[in-house]
Specification:
Layout (H helix, E strand, L loop, with lengths): L14 E6 L9 H6 L18 H9 L12 H11 L1 H9 L4 E7 L9 H8 L2 E7 H9 L7 H18 L5 E4 L1 H4 L11 H14 L7 H14 L3 E5 L17 H6 L7 E5 L4 H10 L3 E4 L3 H5 L3 H8 L8 E2 L8 H24 L5 H20 L24
Helix pairs in contact: 2-15, 4-5, 4-15, 6-7, 7-9, 14-15, 15-16
Length: 400
């Protein structure tokens, strides 16, 4: 396929992007655009650019042809064309070229971002909401800040009701405990007295950001009790987390404790601990792993990293996502790198005789869409309106 042809179709069904975020409704300036190409939360070193990364090069490879420019054009030419088209037209052109049919969108991040329905409409697909547990709790806490036992009791009751209410419309829940405390959590559900004490202390302290390990565990167990899939951030992200505290292997005791609940757990991102995540998906029937964010940031090495995921992860346990945030370009890059990496691997394994062509097609469809449709119960999925959390308040940093 020529560079001007856009992302490859690859013979796959419409993709299910099982974890993603809204995109900016406004036109970012050059510095903000470049900042969204990285997990860094500060400007680049003097004399350098975030365009000079695997993600930056991938954007310049795949996106300019979709806006009428040659692939690999200079960043300033691309950004000028973007400004000429405006954010709405840019969003439609880019998202409609991704081959994504379903967007499961985490609405817990702050900012002027598109919600599930608006994002999906631009891409010609359907959208569903993933509810971020910590953001839900932080919104509720704003009404229970007076402190004291009565307020803590009211807050914990309201929190339980809110999680169960969200489960009626949300396709899944998500936790960013990896950012707030790390994944080495006590696997047991906390008792009512411990939850009330932790809630009282948090409310009285006035801290807007939920980082108490007891309340984080409580949220996880509330979500597990609903039966909706629970997504867990693992592996790399912005510098607000400690990478060594985000190793999914630290979740082993929690995975054991939730094994008989009937609720599936999905390990997001995983890199550089993707082999640990693949192992956990191999040994726990209710655990799944995700390639989102990883492939976007590894660029031309995406096939090598995907192959490492597939060394041990059962083929029915690995899910596609982009984890795109802020820029529609990240949807294009995430889907294009997934398709090209998967095609490279499957074509090679088929040519070598290790796999049959029929099995390669079947596994490709599983990773692209079928696994996510099964986990999230998406048969007959239809568009839904943007949920109340779309673009709502979130925690500091992206916490993706």
């Amino acid at each position: 396929m020529s560079a001007a042809a856009g992302p490859p179709a690859g013979g796959l069904p419409p993709l299910v992007d099982h974890h993603c975020h809204g995109v900016l409704r406004y036109e970012p300036d050059a510095a903000e655009f470049a900042g969204l190409l990285t997990e860094a939360d500060r400007p680049p070193a003097p004399g350098t650019s975030f365009f000079d990364t695997q993600t930056g090069f991938a954007v310049r490879r795949w996106c300019p042809p979709l806006l009428g420019l040659p692939a690999h054009c200079p960043p300033e030419d691309y950004l000028a064309r973007r400004r000429e088209l405006g954010p709405d037209a840019t969003r439609r052109r880019l998202l409609s070229a991704t081959g994504i049919g379903v967007y499961l969108l985490d609405t817990g991040l702050p900012g002027d971002l598109t919600g599930p329905a608006e994002t999906a409409a631009a891409g010609g697909g359907t959208g569903r909401e993933v509810v971020r547990l910590e953001a839900l709790a932080e919104r509720l806490a704003a009404g229970h800040r007076a402190g004291g036992a009565a307020d803590a009791e009211g807050f914990t009751g309201a929190l339980e009701r809110a999680v169960h209410a969200a489960a009626r419309t949300a396709v899944a829940f998500k936790s960013v405990a990896a950012y707030r405390h790390g994944l080495a959590l006590d696997p047991r559900p906390p008792g009512p007295d411990a939850v009330r004490t932790a809630a009282r202390d948090w409310l009285a302290a006035g801290a807007p950001r939920l980082a108490d390990p007891v309340l984080l565990r409580h949220l996880i167990w509330l979500a597990v009790a609903t039966g909706r899939p629970l997504q867990l951030h693992t592996g790399f992200g912005d510098p607000d987390l400690r990478l060594d505290h985000a190793d999914p292997a630290l979740l082993t005791d929690l995975l054991r404790a939730t094994a008989d609940t009937g609720t599936d757990l999905v390990l997001l991102h995983c890199y550089p601990y993707h082999r640990q995540a693949a192992y956990l998906a191999a040994v726990f029937p209710h655990v799944y792993a995700d390639v989102g964010l990883t492939l976007t940031h590894t660029g031309t090495r995406a096939a090598a990293v995907l192959a490492e995921f597939l060394e041990l992860a059962p083929f029915g346990k690995l899910l596609f996502s982009t984890d795109a945030y802020g820029l529609p370009e990240l949807y294009v890059v995430g889907s294009a790198l997934f398709r090209t990496a998967l095609a490279e691997l499957l074509d090679g394994w088929t040519a070598s005789g290790a796999w049959s062509a029929a099995d390669a097609r079947r596994v490709g469809a599983m990773l692209a869409a079928d696994n996510a449709r099964r986990v999230y119960g998406l048969a007959g999925d239809v568009p839904e309106e943007d949920g109340p959390g779309a673009g709502g308040p979130g925690a500091a940093g992206r916490e993706r």
